[in-house]
Amino acid sequence: MALYEKYPVSISNSLSGKKELFTPVKAPFVGLYSCGPTVYNEVHLGNLRTFTSFDVVFRYLTHIGYKVRYVRNITDAGHLTNDAGVGVDRIEESAKLEQLEPMEIVQKYTTSFHDVCRMFNILPPSIEPTATGHIVEQIEMVKKILNNGYAYEINGSVYFDVRKYNEKHNYGELSGRNIDELLEGTRELDRQDEKRNAIDFAIWKAVSPNHIQRWTSPWGEGIPGWHLECSAMGTKYLGDQFDIHGGGMDLKFPHHECEIAQNVGALGKSPVRYWMHTNMLTVNGEKMSKSKGNSFLPRELFAGSHPLLAKAYSPMAVRFFMLQSHYSSTLDFSNEALSAAEKGFKKLSNALTTVKEMNHPFPILSKGRSTDSELEAELDRMVNECYTFMSNDFNTAKTLAVLFEMSAKINEFKSKNLAIFISEEAFNNFKHTYISFMEDVLGIKDEESHNQELMDGVINVLIELRKKARSDKNFALSDKIRDELKSLGVQLMDGKDGEMNYTIE
Ligand code: AMP
Ligand code: ZN
Where do the domains of the chain lie, and which CATH numbers do they carry? Predict the structure, then answer.
């Protein structure tokens, strides 16, 4: 029996507003999509809360035996400052500010996003598609929506006709917004807009020739509407209807509402069975966001260099802090909460080191003894609770509370040599559950192995720089890198095929 059958998962579905039993379209396969970053600047801690939440969903579903295809996109075109498809293009604007090509901006912030994910132990998704890599699919989708009569073209742009769509379907089914109220609230704008109704949104947007990012389409040169990329890429990699779609609560409207309308408008099918929305990371009760000036960047956190930070915090302490609350509750940042999380993380991480070194002494010590069935039942309860809490809408907060109980038991095991009172099977089950929930499910690494990885990464960067210096015949620099590393105890060695290895003394 697969673990997902033993511990069936339930998910709070934003579409129905209810917690529902999770039944994938085609078990054991699960299609999971989450909206990725718009790569026009560095991700802040709020963004990371959402990415960490879906990382844990991906990890847990995989752990219990599902074959998960996790798609998390990179928005590298089409995201304007206004969600309805007007305003300034975020990537073009950053490019102007930093005096770079738009694709240099995209490359720079995609790389930086990946670096941060690695630090926070956020796994790479199975597929990470980009909007610019799927222009053809997006144009095809616009054509389908136009053919089905749910969009209109004007001045080289194509807009989704929300009022027309709503005659047959329900625009607002996800967010609970009422179209009449939306129309009422936006009437003022109507007069100046080329759209038929202010709530219509661009699925293709004409741009002027000085807009660097632009593509040829049947309607002239332009860019895809932001909402469209997720419809096109979700459908391409996960099918017309897939299992789970996630994102932050702020994306529910209009982004996800529009995504549903586009899919229904193009393919006649609602794209997603379970919508999951994470709640916001707040600072003094206000959503953390770049525009409010209350956001800080991961590197500011590790250096403790932001005015809101009393000191520096490590990535794992921050990850732990995020997992201590359920994804659907707001999480307020404070130095007190982060310091408490730091202590909690150390406690669990010490127990992780202890339990890894611990082996059951059976049969030598416990020969002739009968096992302590009460203790075994207690351990069994903890193991079960790890699964039931995670299967209950991915409750990381309650799971961490059980891991604290388990860590206290691990310390008792050590001090009182408790393992001799239980069977080898009970001990191993308990040990492996603790290790796998910490490392595989919650993604909490002990900092030493994390530091080792960091060190390997840094040395490899230096090795690459030294190779470059050699190929540039800059031998002074390449020798300097070798000698300085040597003085720190890192010995570089030439390996096969020009490869370079190293040892640490
Ligand atoms: P963006 O790059 O702005 O599209 O955001 C990437 C992801 O971060 C989206 O899923 C947002 O909903 C999410 N997000 C933005 N701000 C916060 C916040 N303060 N707390 C949690 N998630 C956030
Ligand atoms: Zn999206």
Answer: 3-278 (3.40.50.620), 327-441 (no CATH), 447-504 (no CATH)
